[in-house]
Design brief:
Number of strands: 8
Shape: rod-shaped
Low-confidence stretches: none
Number of helices: 6
Helix content: 40-55%
Number of domains: 2
Structural class: alpha+beta
Radius of gyration: 41 Å
Oligomer: single chain
Largest sheet: 5 strands, mixed
Strand content: 15-25%
Mean pLDDT: 85
Distance between the termini: 83 Å
Length: 232
């Protein structure tokens, strides 16, 4: 505001004279008056012939209203910024949650029709061994264990909504695994329920029976035993 025109200064002179303009406007007017004889003369004339009381009051009211508007505008900008920041944070959070839900959260059960179990046998250390193969060509991310009230224990393979074929033949989807029945009984969620059978697959989708109380499993072959030599 240090290069005001004479027209603007003339409009500001009444407010300047009544000392109701802002500090910045007052400074700009004074800088202009230092270089402009015409506006200086106008100020002197105004000082010699002060404005009527009603006009002075009106100027003060207008100045007060302008200050109030500036304060309101500033508060509005702050509120808008905060709202925008909160909205952006919420959107980013939804994007992250959506990504996690689609690509990371393992909530979709693999159908029993895509599960192939073979080489069920008993290792020399008493553990139950088996080979699992997921046949639909998608990678298996996680296997959940759950003991039901009837004593049936279900190993349920799960994956996220968005499936991947990358490394589908590796890891959980194509490997030999073993079950430590003694450890399962020790760590079961309800000590009053003994494990009577172990299934692989979703409970209500014809899961594959791995073991049942009273079943005599065949001894594991040397090749199967070799799969767990390092993990005993």
């Amino acid at each position: 505001m240090n290069k005001l025109s004479c027209e603007i200064v003339e409009d500001l002179l009444p407010l300047y004279h009544d000392e109701v303009c802002s500090t910045a406007a007052r400074k700009a007017v004074e800088e202009h008056l230092g270089t402009c004889g015409k506006c200086t003369a106008a100020l002197l004339k105004l000082q010699e012939n002060p404005l009527p009381f009603e006009v002075m009051q009106k100027n003060k009211q207008e100045s007060s209203g302008l200050s109030s508007f500036q304060g309101y505008w500033h508060r509005t900008r702050v509120r808008s910024f905060v709202k925008g920041l909160l909205l952006a944070t919420a959107v980013c959070g939804l994007i992250v949650l959506g990504y996690a839900g689609l690509f990371r959260w393992n909530i979709i059960k693999v159908p029993s029709g895509n599960i192939q179990i073979s080489d069920i046998s008993q290792l020399k250390n008493g553990k139950i061994a088996y080979h699992v193969k997921i046949t639909d060509g998608y990678v298996l991310n996680q296997i959940n264990g759950r003991l039901e009230e009837d004593g049936n224990f279900y190993l349920t393979p799960v994956r996220p909504v968005i499936k991947s074929r990358k490394f589908a033949d590796l890891g959980l989807g194509n490997r030999y695994d073993r079950i430590d029945l003694e450890m399962l009984n020790v760590n079961r969620s309800d000590p009053s329920i003994a494990i009577k059978a172990i299934y692989f697959g979703p409970k209500n989708d014809n899961p594959v029976l791995l073991w049942r109380q009273g079943i005599q499993l065949p001894p594991a072959t040397a090749a199967v035993e070799a799969q767990f030599v390092e993990s005993r």
